[in-house]
Design brief:
The protein contains 18 helices and no strands. The chain is mainly α. The longest helix has about 35 residues.
C-alpha cells in the first residue's frame, strides 16, 4: 500500500488516529443508542392498542432498517470519496449522523402526530444507516493512507477499537439513565437525553475533524491524475472480484463474532442459562473492554508478523475461546467473567486485509461495497440462524 515511507508514527499520525477514533466512537454511539431504549420507543411511537409482540417487532424493524441502509449510503459516499477526497466524506458522514440523531430526540410520539411518528423515526434511522455505511470503511481508508506502511495494522486496530468504544459508551449512558431515573421519568422525557447527547457529540466530533488533512495517498492520486475515470464500483466488480470475495468472507467472520459473542450473548445468558440481567451486562461490558484491547493488540501483531499468520492463529484462538465461553455459562460468575473476557479478547479482528486488497483509486468503494453488503446480509441472518439452531442444540452459538 502506498504510504508515508518512514517506519514510525509521528505526532501528526497519533493526532490523526486519535481524532478519527474519537469521531468513530461518537458516531457509533449515535447508531447504537436506539437499541438500548427500544422498549420505551415502542411504547411511545406505536398505537397503545397494538399487541406487545407486534410493537416490539416493528420497533426492531426500525432498528434493522439502519443496517439495511448501510450498503446504499456506503457505496454512494465511497464513490465520492474515491472521486473528490476522503476528508470531505469523512466530515459529511458525521454530519449525516448527528442531525438525524438530534431529530430523533425531538420527535413527537404517536399520541401527538399519529402514524407520522414511527414513519419519521424510520426515516431518521435510514439516514443514520447511510452515515455509518460511509463512516466505517471511510475511517479505515483514512487512517491506513495516513500512517507509515509498517503501522497500518495498528492504525486499523486502534480505529476499530474506537468504533467499539462507541457501543460501550452507549451501554454506559443507558445504564446511568436507567439507574438515576424512574421508568415514568424515562418515558416522559428521559429517553430523549441520550439522543440529544449523541447529536451534540457528533457536532463536536465534526468540528474536531476540521483539523484533519486529506490523505497523502489521495493527494498523490490527484497530482498524478490517477483517480478512477470510470464508475469506481464498476471497476471493483469487473477487475477486483477476488478481493471482493475475500473481503466479504472476512466481514462474515467479523459480523458473526460481534453479533453472537457481543450483542446476542447477554440475552442468551438470561434466557437459556438464567443468568441475571445485571450480571450478564457486567460480563458483557468486560468482554467489550477486552475486545477494545484485542483490536489494538491484533493490529500491532499484524504489523510484526503479517496478516496471514495472525489471522490463522486468531481464528483458532477465537474458536477455542468462544467454545469455552458457551460451555462455562453454568459454572458461576467467576468462570463467566474469565471465559467471556477471553472470548471478547479473541474477537479483536482488524480489517488489514481489506484495506490492502484494493488499489488506492478504488479502495474506498471496494471496502465499502464488500463490507456493507456482507454486514447487511450476515449481520441480519446470523441471529435468525442461531435462533433456529437453538431448537436443535443449546450450544448453537458456540457452533
Amino acid at each position: 500500500m502506498e504510504s508515508n515511507p518512514t517506519q514510525r508514527l509521528d505526532h501528526q499520525d497519533y493526532k490523526t488516529l486519535a481524532l478519527a477514533a474519537l469521531g468513530g466512537a461518537l458516531e457509533f454511539y449515535d447508531f447504537i443508542i436506539f437499541v438500548f431504549f427500544a422498549a420505551v420507543i415502542g411504547d411511545l411511537f406505536f398505537p397503545p392498542d397494538m399487541p406487545e409482540w407486534l410493537r416490539q417487532l416493528q420497533t426492531f424493524a426500525i432498528f434493522a432498517a439502519g443496517y439495511l441502509a448501510r450498503p446504499l449510503g456506503g457505496i454512494v459516499m465511497a464513490h465520492f470519496g474515491d472521486k473528490v477526497g476522503r476528508k470531505k466524506m469523512f466530515s459529511l458522514s458525521i454530519l449525516l449522523m448527528a442531525l438525524p440523531t438530534l431529530a430523533m430526540g425531538a420527535l413527537p410520539g404517536y399520541h401527538a402526530i399519529g402514524i407520522a411518528a414511527p414513519l419519521l423515526m424510520l426515516l431518521m434511522r435510514i439516514l443514520q444507516g447511510a452515515a455509518i455505511g460511509g463512516e466505517v470503511p471511510g475511517a479505515w481508508v483514512f487512517v491506513a493512507e495516513h500512517v507509515p506502511q509498517k503501522c497500518v495494522g495498528f492504525a486499523c486496530g486502534t480505529l476499530t477499537a474506537g468504533l467499539t468504544a462507541g457501543i460501550l459508551l452507549g451501554s454506559l449512558v443507558a445504564t446511568v439513565i436507567n439507574s438515576t431515573m424512574s421508568p415514568s421519568a424515562i418515558a416522559a422525557s428521559g429517553w430523549r437525553i441520550p439522543f440529544f447527547l449523541g447529536g451534540l457529540f457528533g457536532l463536536v466530533a465534526m468540528y474536531l475533524r476540521r483539523w484533519l488533512h486529506e490523505t497523502p495517498v489521495f493527494q498523490q492520486l490527484q497530482q498524478q491524475k490517477a483517480l478512477a475515470e470510470t464508475l469506481p464500483l464498476k471497476t471493483v466488480l469487473t477487475s477486483h472480484k477476488r478481493s471482493v470475495v475475500v473481503s466479504m468472507l472476512l466481514t462474515w467472520l467479523l459480523s458473526a463474532c460481534i453479533v453472537v459473542v457481543i450483542l446476542m450473548a447477554p440475552t442468551l445468558m438470561q434466557k437459556q442459562h438464567a443468568v441475571s440481567a445485571a450480571l450478564s451486562l457486567q460480563a458483557n461490558s468486560l468482554a467489550t473492554v477486552m475486545l477494545l484491547a484485542g483490536c489494538v493488540i491484533t493490529g500491532w501483531l499484524v504489523d510484526r508478523f503479517g496478516a496471514a499468520r495472525v489471522l490463522m492463529a486468531g481464528s483458532v484462538l477465537l474458536a477455542l475461546c468462544s467454545w469455552n465461553f458457551f460451555h462455562q455459562l453454568d459454572n458461576g460468575p467467576q468462570a463467566l467473567f474469565v471465559s467471556y473476557g477471553l472470548a471478547g479478547l479473541s474477537v479483536g479482528v482488524v480489517p488489514f486485509v481489506m484495506v490492502s486488497a484494493f488499489p488506492a483509486a478504488v479502495r474506498f468503494t471496494g471496502i465499502s461495497f464488500s463490507y456493507n453488503v456482507a454486514y447487511a446480509i450476515f449481520g441480519g441472518l446470523t441471529p435468525i440462524f442461531v435462533t433456529l439452531i437453538l431448537r436443535l442444540t443449546p450450544l448453537a452459538p458456540a457452533w
